[in-house]
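User: Here's a chain of 420 residues. Predict its fold as tokens.
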Amino acid sequence: MKSEDGIKMDIRKIKNIKSEMIKIGRAMLDLGLQNTHSGNISVREGNNLFITKTGSMKGHLEERDIVLPGLFEPEYGLFQASSETGTHREILKYAGSAIHAHSLPATLLSYLVDEVKPIDFLGVRYLGNFPVVEFKYPVGSKEMEDNIPIILKEKTAMIVKTHGPFVRGKNVYDAFFKLNILDYSSEILLHLNLLKMDFNKIPELRYPKIQNYSTPKGKRETEDKELLKQFKRTAHDFFYLKLSPFHTGSLSVEDGNEMLYSPGLSSPDYIEFDIKRIKRKKTSEDFFVNLHSAVYNYTTSKAAIFSHSPFGMIQGIKALVEGKDRIIPIDAEGSYLYPAIPVLSPAENIKKIVETAAKYKIVIIAGLGALSVGHTPGHSIHHNSSLRNIAYLKTKLQTMEKSGNIESEKYYENHKGEKW
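Assistant: Prediction complete.
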């Protein structure tokens, strides 16, 4: 069967690919990774190229907004395709999907550096160092078409200076996952630069081993309707509040000698995530599985959440550099709930991490993430969402101090937190 663009392919496969691209376009808008009309998304299926139309609204895509202009030879629809089609076409000769977005932290960071060197766990694990490249004509130019595909053949991501990032992936979910990690790592590096952090003073952050990212299939190994509701609610809050980048973070609930465990939790309500049933005393090769298991082996908690809060990581890394073992809130609600939030090194042993989380409700593992525990998922996520606000406000107030808007951020700290 031929599609409306004259390409031989099963119509169901066409609809499925377009449906996935529509979901990712919506997710990009939900997270502010584009404005209403910016960016573009492409997918390769066999020898076919799917790409968003020029000027299409990525957050409100319809099937007609995705065209098949041909991967190796021009096809009908080329005149409607994105202005970046030439660049995407060359990338998709070796990748399954490519996304160009207008991440604001990444674009701002591009004014400061020529190479992005992530220091957070997710950036180090999934991206590594990647370049910022300046082009004379940084929008849809032949210069970009000639150079970006060469760069992305070696690197997973790059940023066009003053314009925004390009990423590649095995499929559109993998590409969007990498885009989220790029945005996250850029947010951390941007604000550490604004805080005039001496990066040479950051101690070696030894991160644990985990399994590779794989796209969740929506497998749910429980039929408990109430638990499913709580997992879904937590996944959506993770995503929409940006408590953790897309398909990162995890939630577990104790269930006898087993635990219900959801890796890659952060998802909007229109994209799937998994819930697995795992024997909690069985050792895994994945650090996060072992961390969640340890919560139930060493504490009386019934639920645990691990998030990758960007501003939590900014404050955790800053504390480590300054030789501190805690961050102290500067806002009224944060101070009321937590006189201080402990900070540990990512090299700390798992038992110490979970015992600290149980004692103080939440613990930051610098550069890695934040673990909170409680009696239910709702109880646990309260601490992660509170950390988001506490760390964001603290970071911004410190930036205001650097720019001379206030005299001292420490003036607003709850001093009881120094000895708590």
